[in-house]
Amino acid sequence: MGEAEPPQFPIPRIRIDGFRDWAFGVARTFRRLPALERTLEDYPSTATWSLSGHALQVGNLRPEPLMFAPPDGTVTVPLNKVLKNNFWAGSYVFRLLNREKLHFAPFFADRRRLQQLSDAVSAAVPMAFAGLADLLGDVLIQVPVTVVVPSVDVPRDAVDLSLNATWSPGSTPRPLSAAARAKWDELLTGAALSGRFQEAACISVDGRRQPVESEMWDAETGTILSATAPTAILRRVSVNGHVQQHEPRLFAAVDPDTERREVRIRLAHTTTTTVGEDDGQDANYWLARRHDLEERRRLEETRDFVQYRPASGSSRERARALADIRFLIDRHGERGVDLWDPYLTGNDILQTLFWCPHSAVPLRGLTDGRDPPRAVPSGPAGEPEPEAPEAPRASFADRQRGILTRDGGNLEGLRLEYRNSRGPGGWAFHDRFLIFPNGRDGPRA
Q1: Is 50 helix (H, G, I), strand (E, B) or coil?
Q2: What is the pLDDT of residue 1?
Q3: Using an 8 Å Cβ cutoff, are 421 and 430 in contact?
Q4: Alpha-carbon gap, residue 213 to 227, rounded angstroms
Q5: What pLDDT, on the 0 to 100 scale, is given for residue 159?
Q6: Tally of CA atoms within 13 A in the half-sphere of 128 that contains its CB
Q7: How many alpha carbons fall within 13 Å on the CB side of residue 410?
Q8: Which residues of the chain register pLDDT less than 50?
Q9: In Å, how far are 200, 217, 267 from 261, measured between CA atoms?
Q10: Across the strands, what pairs with 153?
Q11: ∠ at Cα 94 (91, 98), nearest 5°?
């Protein structure tokens, strides 16, 4: 751990789209505290950050106010995705902000680039910074609190919070003070201060119904020694049991490269067991419904959804879209799946609904019973060329029956309805929908 120890590079250099002449990497160095002090002292005059022994290109760094990062609770602290082992009392964080971030403009132009880089780095280092684009180009200094380990408990039959402080071996216990509060919908439902204590105290805040957050500090100096993010106690647990079936579902499907291949899907019966109190339609239930309505409005206004950009002659984006659909069906389809598409074919169903791993759940496909429109070739003058007469084909419904009969396999655990609109019933539709109609909180699409 000497001053001249060279940096270590735990993973190979990374190249990502959009940075033709750039390569990214991860460097790890060990330095004693005086080296950090010298780097901080030298930066204002040299504009160089050389803590590792090599100059790191940085922008114009400005210090932000000192922060304290608590461990994750029921609420996740975003900064913990890049901090090291912030599990116990919490950490002080010094941030030197790069205001312009000129070198990082390509990341802000296309957020997929940051996700690609984050995925490559997290394969070797437990850091997931894709959701922290505002920190690009900044310097973070983490100082963890190790002198004390706190715990905050809500006894089963008590209203007050129970606070305990475990001092690290070799440290001298000192007088502490603590505060706690409970909030609901950003409204304060309880708050209190403790008296002075060294190892244990009680605070008159009811933490049984709403998440509680707290702080503990040195009563003599006012230095924060621990904090907790809002954390709720468990009052009810729902456990899903997945009983694997011996017989898989077997069928054939055409992959995005138009290759027909055999597919085997393992099936499971899902049962749900709920343990604990059931509050029914309490205030939190209705608050969740309100948030759901607000989120739908926000998504409509921001168009915040996944986009696919297929390239001519490439099936890559189609494969990605199919993988996303199958992921959603796996994640949310335990009570049934509806798929609406005016041009939904038997091959489409084999590539989507047949992949549902939940046994005997209702799967429904709805089509308008139409073939997709075909592009009409044009002649040299731009006029449509006359089409050659086609041999009569079987009806749309008969052709789909034939596909499913040929490739549907053993139909194990499959409870499928595939319908097309007929006559005056219903309305024509042109959009495509993946719907989970029987979710615990209502339908999702």
Answers
A1: coil
A2: 43
A3: no
A4: 8
A5: 78
A6: 5
A7: 12
A8: 1-2
A9: 65, 64, 19
A10: 162
A11: 140
